[in-house]
Amino acid sequence: MLRPGEEERLREIAAAAKGYWGYDPEVVRVWAAGIRFDPPGQQTYVADSSGEPIAWAAVEPKAEVVWLGDMWVEPGWIGKGVGSLLFRRCEARARELGATRLEWEAEPNAVGFYERMGGRYLRDSEPSEWGRALPVMGLELALE
Fold first, then answer.
1. How far apart are the C-alpha atoms of 18 and 32, rounded to whole Å?
2. So what's the architecture of 7-140 in CATH?
């Protein structure tokens, strides 16, 4: 879970992860500065190594759907299983909340990762602040 005072470090992780895909650094910096950690009901999960945050994700319950609003992994940790563990934690939390589906807008460069996690394309989003529609993906959550 998010610890007090970690917000700026999590913004740095998001900026580094977004920048990893080659986006304009100034646009990424401005975007990351606007990330909020206080929407009602949002729960933020942090993965760390030796006490230092290296990845994070935020989920928000919306009736029968839990929305994965953010998921970012420090570039040096991409491909090492951190993202998979974090995604599975969010999936588990969605189940705990009684959701029937986990949904998210996927960074286009991460669609393959989400497909490996079992996610499937549902629809396109409205155009984002980046001026493009994003794939909205989902994972059906069978009741256990």
1. 9
2. 3-Layer(aba) Sandwich (3.40)
Q: Give Dmax (Cα) for the chain.
A: 45
**DSSP type of residue 106:** P
The rounded distance, in Å, linking the Cα atoms of 113 and 115 is 5
Structure tokens at 95: 């189940």
Compute the distance between CA of residue 127 and CA of residue 120 in angstroms, rounded to an integer.
20
Q: Give the domain ranges of the chain.
A: 7-140
In the beta sheet, which residues pair with residue 10?
A: none
In which band, very low, low, confident or very high, does the pLDDT at 129 lie, cut at 50, 70 and 90?
confident
Q: Closest by alpha carbon to 45, among 31, 61, 53? A: 53
| 50-106: pLDDT as tens digits | 999 999 999 999 989 999 999 999 999 999 999 999 999 999 999 999 999 999 999
Q: Residue 42: CB partners within 8 Å, gap ≥ 6?
A: 58, 59, 60, 69
Cβ(139)–Cβ(119) below 8 Å = yes
pLDDT higher than threshold 70 for residue 143: no
Length of the chain: 144
